[in-house]
Design the sequence.
């Protein structure tokens, strides 16, 4: 009787082909499907992939936008500084020197221009970003037919360009505030966060109007009226104390009002904006999520209308 080892060796020899390789037996597990190991990308890897996909096209388009706007001028990017500077000087002379208006009873006449511009700069950035984004898809429709190009980037470009002007204007405003005797506090460090919330909210509206303007061509004209109405319904030219009690609900549901008050709190009043932050975060993230979801669902049908 043969030993078990010799029987197994003989079976392996009989299974060998002419090339000397051992053929698998019918009862081996080679017939089972191969195991495929899929390694999911980590958070950092996905973040880098998104940055590569969106970052480089965005930077290229923003650079092109500034070249188109300032490339053919004599002082170039100097206009990005000169425009908010002239605006500040003009409002200061008209409202503080000529009209001698006071924003509040305890303020001096010089503070009116500061309060006015601390509300105007975020509104102007919002208004410019939204209005220019409304026509961005029509102006860059050739990019949309490139399947590898992320269409979401196109409405972001005017928002980023407007933010550059806003940051320059707020820097000049802070310098003017110091010249008028306004003491800065530690709350000024919240200003970048407030600018970020303004950017997020503007992006949401920009994605919405950029697609809607493809289907409804009158939206561009209507948008100017809506933004103008929003400016006068927000306490930018007047203090919030002047709003009648019966209309206080309108301020509560107006996110721009909370944004403007937060800007003024950290720049001019040395006060905490923490009470307004939850409201701003909810509004900003909500608008961005709504705009992005709508944009992604409507962009393909919109391409057929371009």
Sequence:
């Amino acid at each position: 009787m043969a030993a078990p080892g010799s029987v197994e060796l003989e079976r392996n020899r009989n299974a060998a082909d002419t090339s000397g390789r051992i053929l698998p037996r019918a009862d081996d597990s080679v017939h089972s499907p191969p195991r495929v190991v899929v390694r999911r990308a980590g958070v950092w890897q996905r973040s880098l992939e998104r940055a590569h996909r969106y970052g480089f096209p965005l930077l290229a388009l923003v650079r092109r936008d500034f070249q188109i706007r300032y490339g053919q001028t004599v002082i170039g990017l100097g206009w990005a500084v000169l425009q908010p500077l002239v605006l500040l000087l003009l409002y200061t002379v008209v409202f503080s020197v000529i009209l001698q208006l006071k924003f509040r009873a305890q303020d001096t006449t010089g503070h009116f221009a500061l309060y006015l511009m601390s509300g105007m700069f975020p509104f102007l950035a919002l208004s410019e970003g939204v209005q220019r984004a409304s026509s961005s898809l029509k102006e860059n429709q050739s990019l949309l037919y490139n399947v590898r190009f992320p269409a979401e980037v196109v409405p972001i470009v005017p928002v980023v360009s407007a933010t550059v002007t806003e940051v320059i204007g707020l820097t000049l405003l802070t310098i003017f505030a110091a010249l008028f005797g306004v003491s800065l506090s530690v709350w000024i460090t919240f200003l970048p966060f407030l600018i970020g919330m303004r950017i997020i909210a503007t992006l949401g509206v920009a994605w919405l109007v950029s697609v809607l303007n493809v289907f409804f061509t009158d939206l561009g004209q209507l948008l100017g009226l809506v933004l103008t109405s929003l400016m006068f319904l927000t306490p930018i030219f007047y203090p919030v104390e002047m709003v009648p009690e019966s209309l206080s609900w309108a301020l509560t549901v107006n996110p721009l009002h909370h944004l403007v008050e937060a800007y003024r709190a950290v720049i001019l009043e040395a006060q905490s904006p923490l009470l307004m932050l939850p409201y701003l975060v909810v509004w900003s993230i909500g608008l961005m999520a709504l705009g992005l979801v709508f944009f992604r669902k409507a962009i393909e049908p919109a391409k057929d209308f371009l």
